[in-house]
């Protein structure tokens, strides 16, 4: 089922108007070459809101739109989205500064107040933002309902499919087959869901092959093939394919964090240094770039410097759960077991399928000479990823219980 170019172009415009640039960029891969994206003339008041959002004056952007009078729907959404981003950014900064997991109720109040405001709006984008907010509050049932409601109103709202993906990765049985109508984005969603599930690589490849007419040579299709090799621990082949992808898209950084993980595992400090230099020259303030720079410093033994880069990645993208896992590894290297446990817990809080974080928790508790706890976390890791190394760790720890 192909995309309808005119409808796709209109959706890209709507996403751009609302600051959902990542989603717009993803959809642009499927817009035919030379097809134009329509634009609307901006009134002065709407242009001001857009300028405040783009300059990251989030609180001011929100305050300007609180009355909702005289502003377009896109500007009202921008105000609410700005407030949400401000709240999430402040929460992450507080967590990183205080290194605490608990007693965060005071940081949730602002999100609850925003939800009360959003309940007055029933459009697809407001429902999407409500889904994000509920997910932040760990109210997953409410997040799921809002995400599905948003998609039913607008099948092309890529941003909401992203929320649904985060929910479904933790619970693949969450979605009934007939819950959402068939559409190009549902197909892409299904492929990405299989991609994130280690045991379903072949199913993912089959879907890629069956939907070649839809996906073509899109970045999504190419990067997914690379990522499946990484999941299967075929690191040399994955590296080769990722480097080819990098040559085809020299200024696209979406995949460099995964490539840097591969180079770290292979211990290729020369290639990792070259990658770090490249991402620095393109955009050193992308979260993926920060992860690559963190991995480079880690391989050089500069663990404290690596932690700084992983912290920066989290400030730039609070949803980047891998950065928490990698930071946990650095604290292990520094023998800061309390710090590592905190980071791993944050990682699994963001992504229950991160077997590396579960395994890290097992390692930390084993080092603390608490084998019963270690076995529990190792077994949790093994339930996510059937790996002989994890099985060996379980057997060794069980001897100490």
Which word captures the global form? globular
Number of helices: 23
Cα radius of gyration in angstroms: 22 Å
At CATH level 2, the architecture of the domain at 337-401 is Alpha Horseshoe
Percent of residues in helices comes to: over 70%
Structure description:
The protein contains 23 helices and no strands. With 401 residues, the chain is mostly helical. Among the domains are: 255-317, Tetratricopeptide repeat domain (Serine Threonine Protein Phosphatase 5, Tetratricopeptide repeat, Alpha Horseshoe), CATH 1.25.40; 337-401, Serine Threonine Protein Phosphatase 5, Tetratricopeptide repeat. α6 packs antiparallel against α7 (124-136).
Can you lay out the helices and strands and say which pair or pack?
Layout: H1 5-17, H2 21-28, H3 44-54, H4 58-65, H5 73-98, H6 105-118, H7 124-136, H8 140-153, H9 158-170, H10 184-195, H11 201-210, H12 212-215, H13 219-231, H14 235-248, H15 256-266, H16 269-283, H17 287-299, H18 303-316, H19 321-333, H20 337-350, H21 355-367, H22 371-384, H23 388-398
Helix pairs in contact: 1-2, 3-4, 3-5, 4-5, 5-6, 5-7, 5-18, 6-7, 7-8, 8-9, 9-10, 10-11, 11-13, 13-14, 14-15, 15-16, 15-17, 16-17, 17-18, 18-19, 19-20, 19-21, 20-21, 21-22, 22-23
């Amino acid at each position: 089922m192909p995309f309808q170019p005119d409808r796709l172009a209109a959706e890209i415009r709507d996403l751009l108007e609302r600051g959902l640039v990542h989603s717009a960029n993803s959809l642009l891969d499927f817009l035919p070459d030379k097809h134009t994206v329509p634009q609307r003339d901006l009134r002065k008041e709407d242009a001001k809101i857009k300028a405040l959002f783009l300059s990251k004056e989030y609180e001011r952007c929100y305050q300007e739109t609180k009355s909702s009078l005289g502003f377009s729907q896109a500007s009202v959404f921008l105000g609410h989205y700005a407030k949400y981003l401000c709240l999430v950014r402040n929460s992450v900064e507080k967590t990183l500064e205080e290194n605490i997991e608990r007693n965060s109720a005071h940081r949730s109040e602002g999100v609850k107040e925003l939800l009360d405001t959003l309940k007055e709006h029933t459009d697809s984008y407001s429902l999407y933002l409500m889904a994000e907010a509920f997910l932040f509050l760990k109210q997953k049932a409410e997040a799921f309902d809002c995400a599905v409601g948003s998609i039913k109103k607008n099948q092309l709202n890529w941003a909401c499919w992203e929320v649904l993906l985060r929910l479904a990765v933790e619970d693949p049985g969450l979605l009934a087959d007939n819950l959402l109508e068939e559409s190009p984005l549902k197909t892409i969603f299904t492929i990405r869901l299989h991609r994130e599930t280690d045991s379903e690589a072949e199913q993912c490849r089959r879907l890629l092959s069956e939907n070649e007419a839809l996906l073509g040579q899109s970045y999504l299709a190419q990067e997914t093939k690379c990522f499946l090799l990484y999941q299967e621990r075929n690191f040399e082949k994955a590296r080769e394919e990722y480097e080819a992808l990098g040559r085809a898209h020299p200024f696209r950084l979406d995949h460099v964090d995964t490539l840097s993980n591969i180079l770290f595992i292979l211990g290729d400090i020369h290639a990792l240094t070259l990658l770090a230099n490249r991402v620095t020259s393109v955009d050193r303030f992308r979260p993926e770039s920060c992860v690559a720079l963190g991995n480079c410093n880690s391989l050089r033994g500069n663990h404290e410097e690596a932690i700084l880069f992983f912290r920066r990645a989290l400030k730039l993208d609070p949803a980047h759960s891998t950065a928490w896992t990698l930071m946990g590894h650095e604290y292990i290297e520094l023998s800061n077991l309390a710090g590592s446990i905190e980071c791993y817990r944050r990682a699994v809080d963001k992504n229950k399928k991160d077997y590396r974080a579960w395994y890290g928790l097992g390692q930390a508790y084993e080092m603390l000479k608490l084998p019963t706890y270690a076995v529990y976390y190792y077994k949790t890791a093994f339930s996510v990823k059937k790996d002989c190394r994890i099985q060996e760790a379980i057997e060794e720890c069980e001897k100490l219980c």
